[in-house]
Recover the amino acids of this structure.
């Protein structure tokens, strides 16, 4: 076994996801304790830009740049990553709890017959290199610290915004190109298209700031004021189960138990009553603001700041006020 | 089409779950069928309506069979309960191994599962079973288009910032999530059928597995310590009148919380 | 084991399925149903498609032939949603179709019962008039024997589903002077171009249970054929009515259980959340006592009601028990919602909070199946062995 910590440097269209930098920053911290080498593993096609963005964050980069890897599929990635992991035997393999991470990691872990902690909200390491993965269970009603048994690597996917990006690592990675062209016939599925969501906003799981409205917004067209607020903050717009079930918003924006868990730095809820389904999805957000007309709304129990008021009055005023504040910056 | 749906009974979202000790939880006895599994059952039933065949619901659980009953109530043809005392304490990898052992010699076209069980929220079993059976999987699908089960099919999964459309051949395994369909509400006639249904029970020996393959002995990762969720400090209500309250909020976010 | 209070695993599953259907179909619309005060045809169709309207009828007519205890589980779960919808549905399932199924000939069953089970035809039963309700002997609607059938004359009031009913089981007397002995049931259908029948009179606007529509049915020399006489012998109407009164009373009790529980669960959440003098109000003893009292009353009521259901199912005579249980549970429910109103303080008085709806709905249960004044007078008389 090597003393390497690997981070799956997930990229989409040649751009490495922020969560990978977060994990590389965390891995750099861990390596101070364990003396590990931090390595990124980058797969895809046409990766020059991606590679450049990564070099200062890792000691090593395993690079698999192949036209056959242009789009992610679990088969293609697994075929490449599994032998490499077997060869180098990293002690830890981390990835973002993204749609790709959650698709790839469980299958890879099963293939490697090793332990995997999904959707973690914290990681710590002991001097002997043992990883402790903290993750929510039962939708966040409890948390568990998980430890790994013998098999290596210790695998985990970690939620966005769990760690901060350290832009001052100043490493200069040794790039290790791996060539192993894919036999396309060995692949059982292929990507045939990508429909981009309208608007340029980040997914609610990735955004640092999320603003959301619930049933209190009264009609789908009223989300316009939420979009305007989001624009000022470079935030994404989330929502509750109620509005999704009404058909007002797409399910991809639903926060909560049957939707998505978010770990935003700032979450602001407007006209959200605070049903348990919803609360479970925001448990790991750092700062929560709630605005509702009902002073007894449950959401206030889970917020840091609360205002009793009408969202139709508060949201536009807040948008204006934030514009001023952002301009001062 | 021969379709298997992996299902599980999990604590109701309203159920209390508390830390009892470092390694023990106290879970209120209120269970329901994992919501994502209902979506998977619905997807299976829709395909059966289109192509004929059979939908079988399958669970690994020593006690709770209501997820199977719900499957029957929704319209599934058959229900299988894999049960064995040795399964207690199994992790998702062992559950996947058990399910794969059952499925490996079955003539299935498609295996469906929920995107994750709303208990450990792991999402390992689905892809794990696919890996062990050597079939492709797609996780968290929101669209499925099959014109002919013998030909290439289209499946849509949500990715950050859009939807990805993939194609593959059956047999395959898909995990399903909200957005794929609206699970039907069972009709009372089927509910009565489900009340009377006898589940077919299968034990580990019948699957060629033994106690060392599953349960506590086979875990690859284990809980060192359960923790209650982090507590937020009490809410600070901003009591000023409008528009002062908005100004105050911005000030607090900037100067106290330092998040903008 | 002679005394067993457990539900079977199957019954628990059944409860879960009904609960789930109610949660998905009715719960999201409860407020709207109450405010609109209209019969929700779309919901009715969706609900009927699940097959629950045939719960207690024979399988050959599309029913499920379910036992009494399971039926009561259904009523208890259904009423968690909208009291009004529950009233319309139980009218259809139980009172509105019972005598059709019991005495109707094959033609009538195919024509009326089968579509009623599918929810395509809506039924009701008519007892109350302007001068009679709990006092059945005061019934003045007159049935006169004529060649090939009967002529019915009278006005029935307070008829659940009345404004939308396609058919009604009407209690009428062959002679008001005969008192209870003159009473019979007749099937009367709504008047159409090619059939004589009842017409709708005035619709009532109610305090609670608002999405079940209630109003008058008017029969003006209405002709019905002989086959529409529902009974084996003339003069046995009251005896026949007695056959379902036990079930009706326990069913009403189940509605009370459901409303009381929903109201208290709601109030519990409120009390745990509402802060006064620095604490959630559930920390204060006077508030806690309300929950303790409710809890005790509720458990007693529920146990008693299911005992009655068990007695009915096992054909053990239980007229008095069912009356007592109906009385206890609906008074319990009224007590519970009154206390909930107190817990909510001033907020109880605004329609933004659901507690006022529970309170209005609970009131309705006090009168259904006879006023408590009449009921208690009777029960007291029995107890004193006058």
């Amino acid at each position: 076994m090597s003393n390497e910590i690997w981070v799956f440097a997930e990229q989409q269209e040649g751009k490495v996801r922020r969560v990978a930098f977060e994990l590389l920053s965390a891995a750099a911290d861990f390596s101070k304790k364990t003396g590990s080498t931090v390595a990124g593993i980058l797969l895809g096609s046409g990766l020059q830009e991606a590679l450049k963005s990564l070099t200062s964050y890792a000691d090593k980069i395993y690079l698999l740049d192949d036209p056959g890897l242009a789009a992610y599929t679990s088969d293609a990635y697994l075929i490449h990553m599994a032998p490499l992991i077997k060869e180098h035997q990293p002690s830890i393999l981390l990835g973002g709890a993204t749609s790709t991470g959650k698709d790839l990691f469980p299958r890879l872990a099963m293939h490697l017959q090793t332990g995997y902690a999904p959707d973690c909200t914290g990681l710590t390491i002991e001097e002997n290199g043992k990883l402790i993965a903290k993750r929510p269970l039962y939708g966040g009603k409890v948390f568990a610290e998980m430890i790994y048994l013998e098999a290596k690597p210790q695998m985990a996917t970690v939620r966005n915004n769990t760690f901060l990006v350290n832009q001052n690592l100043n490493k200069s990675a040794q790039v290790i190109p791996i060539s192993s062209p894919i036999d396309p016939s060995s692949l059982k599925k292929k990507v045939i298209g990508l429909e981009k969501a309208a608007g340029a906003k980040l997914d609610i799981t990735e955004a640092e700031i999320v603003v959301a409205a619930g049933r209190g917004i009264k009609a789908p067209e009223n989300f316009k004021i939420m979009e305007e607020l989001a624009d000022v903050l470079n935030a994404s717009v989330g929502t509750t189960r109620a509005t999704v079930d009404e058909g007002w918003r797409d399910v991809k924006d639903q926060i909560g138990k049957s939707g998505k868990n978010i770990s935003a730095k700032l979450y602001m809820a407007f006209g959200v009553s605070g049903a348990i389904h919803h609360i479970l999805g925001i448990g790991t957000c750092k700062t929560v603001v709630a605005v509702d007309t009902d002073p007894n709304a449950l959401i206030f129990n889970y917020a840091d700041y609360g205002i009793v008021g009408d969202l139709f009055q508060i949201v536009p005023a807040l948008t204006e006020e934030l514009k001023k504040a952002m301009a001062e910056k | 089409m021969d379709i298997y749906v992996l299902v599980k009974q999990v604590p109701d979202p309203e159920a209390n779950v508390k830390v009892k000790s470092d390694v023990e939880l106290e879970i209120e006895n209120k269970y329901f069928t994992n919501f994502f599994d209902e979506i998977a059952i619905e997807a299976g039933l829709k395909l059966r309506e289109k192509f004929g065949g059979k939908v079988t619901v399958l669970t690994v659980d020593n006690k709770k069979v209501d997820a199977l009953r719900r499957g029957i109530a929704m319209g599934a043809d058959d229900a299988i309960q894999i049960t064995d005392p040795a399964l207690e304490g199994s992790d998702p990898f062992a559950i996947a191994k058990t399910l794969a052992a059952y499925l490996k010699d079955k003539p299935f076209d498609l295996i469906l599962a929920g995107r994750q069980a709303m208990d450990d929220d792991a999402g390992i079993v689905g892809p794990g079973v696919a890996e062990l059976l050597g079939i492709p999987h797609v996780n968290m699908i929101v669209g499925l288009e099959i014109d002919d089960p013998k030909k290439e099919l289209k499946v849509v999964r949500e990715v950050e910032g859009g939807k990805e459309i993939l194609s593959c051949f059956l047999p395959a395994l898909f995990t399903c999530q909200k957005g794929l369909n609206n699970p039907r509400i069972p009709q009372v006639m089927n509910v009565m059928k489900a009340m009377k249904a006898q589940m077919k029970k299968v034990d580990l020996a019948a699957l060629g597995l033994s106690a060392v393959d599953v349960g506590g002995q086979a875990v690859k990762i284990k809980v060192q310590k359960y923790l209650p969720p982090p507590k937020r400090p009490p809410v600070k209500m901003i009591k000023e009148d409008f528009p002062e309250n908005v100004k105050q909020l911005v000030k607090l976010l900037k100067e106290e919380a330092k998040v903008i | 084991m002679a005394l067993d209070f457990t539900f079977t695993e199957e019954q628990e599953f059944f409860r879960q399925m009904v609960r789930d259907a109610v949660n998905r179909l009715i719960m999201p619309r409860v407020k709207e149903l109450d405010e609109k005060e209209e019969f929700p045809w779309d919901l009715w169709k969706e609900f009927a498609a699940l097959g629950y309207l045939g719960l207690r009828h024979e399988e050959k007519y599309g029913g499920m032939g379910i036992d009494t205890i399971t039926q009561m589980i259904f009523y208890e779960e259904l009423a968690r949603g909208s009291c009004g919808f529950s009233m319309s549905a139980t009218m259809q399932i139980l009172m509105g179709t019972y005598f059709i199924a019991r005495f109707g000939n094959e033609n009538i069953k195919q024509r009326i019962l089968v579509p009623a089970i599918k929810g395509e035809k809506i039924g009701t039963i008519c007892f109350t008039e302007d001068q009679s309700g709990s006092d059945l002997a005061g019934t003045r609607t007159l049935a006169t024997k004529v060649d090939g059938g009967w002529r019915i004359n009278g006005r029935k009031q307070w008829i659940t589903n009345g404004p939308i009913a396609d058919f009604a089981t009407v209690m009428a007397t062959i002679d008001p002077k005969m008192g209870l002995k003159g009473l019979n049931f007749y099937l009367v259908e709504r008047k159409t171009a090619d059939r004589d029948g009842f017409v709708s009179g005035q619709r009532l606007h109610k305090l609670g249970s608002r999405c079940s529509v209630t109003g008058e049915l008017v029969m003006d020399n209405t002709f019905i054929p002989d086959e529409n006489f529902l009974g084996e012998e003339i003069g046995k109407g009251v005896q026949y009515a007695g056959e379902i009164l036990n079930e009706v009373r326990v069913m009403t009790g189940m509605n009370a259980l459901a409303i009381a529980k929903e109201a208290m669960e709601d109030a519990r959440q409120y009390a745990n959340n509402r802060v006064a003098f620095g604490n959630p109000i559930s920390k204060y003893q006077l508030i806690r006592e309300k929950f303790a009292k409710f809890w005790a009353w509720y458990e007693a009521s529920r146990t008693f009601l299911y005992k009655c259901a068990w007695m009915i199912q096992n054909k053990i005579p239980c007229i008095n028990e069912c009356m007592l249980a109906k009385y206890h549970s609906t008074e319990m429910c009224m007590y519970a919602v009154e206390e909930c109103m107190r817990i909510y303080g001033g907020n109880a008085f605004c329609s933004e909070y659901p507690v006022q709806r529970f309170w209005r709905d609970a009131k309705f249960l006090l009168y259904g199946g006879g006023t408590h004044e009449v009921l208690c007078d009777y029960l007291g008389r029995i107890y004193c062995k006058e």
